[in-house]
Amino acid sequence: MTFERHILPLLRQHLDRKQITVLTGMRRTGKTTLVKQLMTESTIRQKLYIDLERIDNRALWSETNYETIVLALTQRGLRFDEPVLIALDEIQLVPNLPSVLKYLYDTYSIKFIVTGSSAYYLKNQFTESLAGRKKLFDIYPLTFGELLTFRGVEATALDWSTASQFIRAEYERLKGYYEEYVLYGGFPEVVLTESIADKLDLLNDILSSYVNFDIVTLADIRNPIDLYKLIRLLAVRIGTKLDVSKLTSLTSMSRPTVENYLDLLEQSYLIRTIPVLAKSPDREIVKARKLYFLDNGIASIAADPGSGARFENAVFNQLLHRGAVAYYQLKSGREIDFVLDQTLGFEVKETAAEGDLKQLQTLGKNLDLTHQYVVGRHPLRVFDGYIWGGSIR
Question: Which domains does the chain have, with CATH numbers?
Answer without folding.
Answer: 8-139 (3.40.50.300), 145-391 (1.10.10.10)
